[in-house]
Amino acid sequence: MAYAADQPDGEVAGPRPISSVETESFVDGVVEDAMRVDHVSGAAVAVVQNGRAVLVKGYGAASRSPWRRVTPDTPFRIGSTTKTLTWIALMREVERGQIRLDAPVNDYLPPNARFPNAGFQRPLLVRDLMSHATGLEDLALGHLVPKVPSDMRTLARYVSEEQPRRVAPPGQFASYCNYCAVLAGYIVARIEGVDYETVIERDITGPLGMTSTSLRDPRPAWTGMPAPMPPSLAAVASDGFAWEDGDYKRLPVELTGQITPAGGAWSSAADMARYMMLILGDGTVGSTAIYDKATAQAFQTAILKTDPGINGWAHGFQILPMPGGFTGYGHNGDTILFHSNLITVPRLSLGIFVVANTDTGYKLARRLPELLVAHFYGGAESATSAAMSVDQKMLAPYTGVFIPSRRAFHGVEGFVDLLQTSAISAGAGGLVTGSDPVTWIPEGAAGRFREKDGVHVISFDFEDGKPVRWCNSFNTTQYERASWWQRPDLFALAAGLAVICALASLAGIFMRRRAPISTAIQAASLAVQRLAAVAWLVSLSGFGIWAANASNNYALIAGWPGPFITLFAWGSVLAAILSGTCLALLPPLWRTDGWSHWRKLRYSMVTAAFSTLAILVFMRGGLEIWSL
Q: From residue 592, how far is each of 69, 73, 380, 516 by CA, in Å?
């Protein structure tokens, strides 16, 4: 990103604290509308300002059978908002001189967990963990959420056994990394000599009186793992729901005990109100001091230099544009079933927390803080809503298919991650992104666009004068222009062509032969190609069934790899071997008599289709069956 100075926050014309009555009325409308339209079973909201709670309220159902309403003290899974606790714990070690931010991470790790150089000159630094600029790939499937408690591992085992590869130089750009927070929590726990959960409870949530907060899974006790959530708290914690077939389906809550520092906390609206007072109070609430003013300043100081409006990661806290020209600091959290968001606006002495217990609650969690600030402190940015026409020729260089840097870079997980592309097209009003389309209009310097009717921005990087990558205000991934072999439409085309050729090849079994097989090479070639056809059909059928169910995040993450993607991978290996054999048989086949040139050409075309697909699957990592 082009470097630019930070823009100052907007100004408040005199003290304008929001009232409890007005806030409750506004929030009630937003939450109740989201619960009706997006089918959210339950939610909780906390709003604080000037050291007092403006609103702490629960909405809807925490349990539906039996019915149990959400209260201000109902614990919800808060997902990655947990990371703010981890960064506070890490910075407390910095204050005590136990950790240096500019020290290599390897200085605080045992030999079996240290990172290799991997061809990069600079080592990973502790500071890189907090900015997500480690250059690590992001792995999740099959281990982020284990299927059953017995599959869980300690932090020490997880850190050493699930270490992602280094794929980019550290310190250059952010690419969101759950493993980074897990590693930070592990380092803190290792220094303190107790488990991570105990560190947080002893040093942060306990002193703050956050009695409805737990860093522990609601599960049975398991030998070698930290103690589970106390039964008294588990009994009142919110269930997690999926909206399926017109009804709420209660699902087992995700087990996160092996990645607790990245997303395992539970908390209530009442507890998060006190937590936001801590953040807005520069580390102190009343007579309770958790961290010092230098750390508080770090949580408002970007590590990465970015364009205005692009999150530079304030030592683990997100820096986000807010309506009215203000700046928010905080972190959102998304698990399979729960969605949360915590935003503090220091210039307004304002903190907003929202959490929902249904897989459809993402929009509510993301939008409520912005809507509330816009309602009470909104500025002139709404002027962008005016209809306008943008030069299509100017937009053309920015269009195309882009792939996120936050992904697996190898194996079958890498193969499926390449399907998660982001397409940018040119519309009459500007650039258009997303399946739920967002329009972006040019603003200021080349490569910078602002969300129409919003405050977020996207910014492009250039190479040789051409835009090659971009990121948005959240700065959790870099979207890089896809190479030809990474494009999902090319894979879909190759797969479709292979299916047609496979069916045509097998159809020949039932058709009268016009040219009999007269040589052994012809018989072998035909048999191998038909076997390849069967293998590709079986393989792609497995992939198709998996893809049809891939929208179910619960099954995708906790159930990886599952039978169908396994069938695809093993079937593709067999099909690729058979396709290569067909290719090797082409020269002798063309030298034999008996088949017409047209029949040999048809055989060659089918072989080419099979081989092309095999090469694409190989290049995309789909043949790496050892990665399953």
A: 79, 81, 78, 13
Tokens of 614: 């095999």
CB distance 291 to 88 below 8 Å: yes
Where residue 177 sits, what CATH number does that domain have?
Answer: 3.40.710.10
Q: Answer yes or no: do 544 and 500 share one domain.
A: yes
Spatial contact of 215 and 196, defined as CB atoms under 8 Å apart? yes
Helices 520-548/488-507 angle, 10° precision: 130
Contact 191, 108 (CB under 8 A): yes
Give tens-digit pLDDT for 223-273. 788 999 999 999 999 999 999 999 999 998 888 889 999 999 999 999 999
Strand stretches in 106-160, DSSP E: none
Range of 431's domain? 392-482
User: In this structure, how many other beta carbons lie within 10 angstroms of the beta carbon of residue 444?
Assistant: 12
Amino acid occupying residue 82: T
Tokens of 583: 């290719």
CA neighbor of 120 nearest in space, from 178, 175, 172, 174: 172
Residue 3 in domain? no
- Choose one of 378, 408, 426: the last residue of a domain: 378
HSE at residue 624, side-chain half, CA atoms within 13 A, is 16
**Does 4 fall in a domain?**
no
The tokens for 321 are 């544009």
Could you give the dihedral angle defined by the CA atoms of residues 537, 543, 544 and 548, in that order, rounded to the nearest 10 degrees? 170
Q: Are residues 607 and 548 in the same domain?
A: yes
Q: Over the Cα atoms of the chain, what is R_g?
A: 27
Asked if residue 490 belongs to a domain, the reply is yes
Q: What is the pTM of this model?
A: 0.92
CA distances from 166 to 136, 207, 274 (A): 5, 38, 38
Amino acid code (one letter) for 115: F
- The CA distance from 311 to 425, in Å, is 24
Residues of the chain with pLDDT under 50: 1-15, 380, 382-387
Summarised one tens digit per residue, pLDDT across range 50-102 is 999 999 999 999 999 999 999 999 999 999 999 999 999 999 999 999 999 99
Quick one: 97 exposed, middle or buried, by C-beta within 10 A (0-12, 13-18, 19+)?
A: exposed
Domain check: are 586 and 494 in the same one? yes
Q: Let me know if residue 9 belongs to a domain.
A: no
**Using one digit for the tens of pLDDT, what is the confidence trace for 8-40?**
444 444 448 999 999 999 999 999 999 999 999
State the residue for tokens 């792939």.
403
**CB of 269 within 8 A of CB of 365?**
no
* CATH at 490: 1.20.120
Same domain, 470 and 399: yes
Q: How many domains does the chain have?
A: 3
314, 348, 378 - which closes a domain: 378
Q: How many CB atoms lie within 10 A of CB 228?
A: 19
Residue among 398, 388, 276, 286 at smallest CA distance from 329: 276
* Residues 172 and 249 reside in one and the same domain: yes
Looking at the fold, whether 457 and 342 belong to one and the same domain comes out as: no
The answer to whether the CB of 264 falls within 8 A of the CB of 82 is yes
| Token pair for 5 | 């100075």
Together in a domain, 368 and 398:
no
**Are 294 and 407 in a shared domain?**
no
